[in-house]
TrEMBL record:
It comes from the Eukaryota. Keywords: Repeat, WD repeat. SMART domains: WD40 (SM00320). Gene3D superfamilies: YVTN repeat-like/Quinoprotein amine dehydrogenase. PANTHER family: SPERM-ASSOCIATED ANTIGEN 16 PROTEIN, WD40 REPEAT PF20. WD repeats lie at residues 1-24, 25-66, 67-108, 109-149. The lineage of its organism: Eukaryota, Metazoa, Chordata, Craniata, Vertebrata. It comes from Tachuris rubrigastra. One of its GO terms (cellular component) is axonemal central apparatus. This is SPG16 protein. Pfam families: WD40. GO terms for biological process: axoneme assembly.
Length: 149
């Protein structure tokens, strides 16, 4: 299975190798920039140019949560290995750590001087890696919102 997002505001789930479409998700109002499966495989998170992050329940075939808080397009998203937190990276020069259970932003990571282009939780850790158009990489402790490097 592979998931793609595109300029048509949709994500599509495809089977490999035959290329059949299993599922399509609509709800974003601008291009999709990223998607990541929850470790359990039951949900997915997407990021979009519409400034939102959406959580999708794959068994219900729909969006169950829209996270709002970024001022500009969201360029990437990542799911923590334990499944309770999602991270997002935005053109507004910030990253956010979202608590999926409480449905709110837990922390905003500030420090990059330009767009944050990618974000990834290190496996089984509270450490987050971000990369930015300011030509820097940063490691963050998502529990204390402090930059490690």
């Amino acid at each position: 299975i592979v998931v793609t997002g595109s300029d048509d505001h949709l994500w599509k789930m495809w089977t490999l190798p035959n290329g059949n479409i299993l599922m399509t998700g609509e709800g974003h109002t601008d291009w999709l920039s990223g998607c990541c499966f929850r470790p359990s495989g039951t949900q997915m998170v997407t990021s979009s140019g519409d400034t939102t992050v959406r959580i999708w329940d794959l068994s219900r075939r729909g969006c169950i949560l829209t996270l709002k808080g970024h001022a500009r397009a969201v360029l990437d998203c990542s799911w923590h290995s334990q499944g309770d937190f999602v991270a997002s990276a935005s053109m507004d020069s910030t990253s956010k750590i979202w608590d999926v259970n409480s449905e709110r932003c837990r922390y905003t990571l500030r420090g990059h001087k330009d767009s944050v282009n990618s974000i990834e939780f290190l496996p089984f850790s509270s450490t987050v890696l971000t990369s930015s158009a300011d030509k820097t990489l940063s490691l963050w402790d998502s529990r204390t919102v402090s930059r490690l490097f």
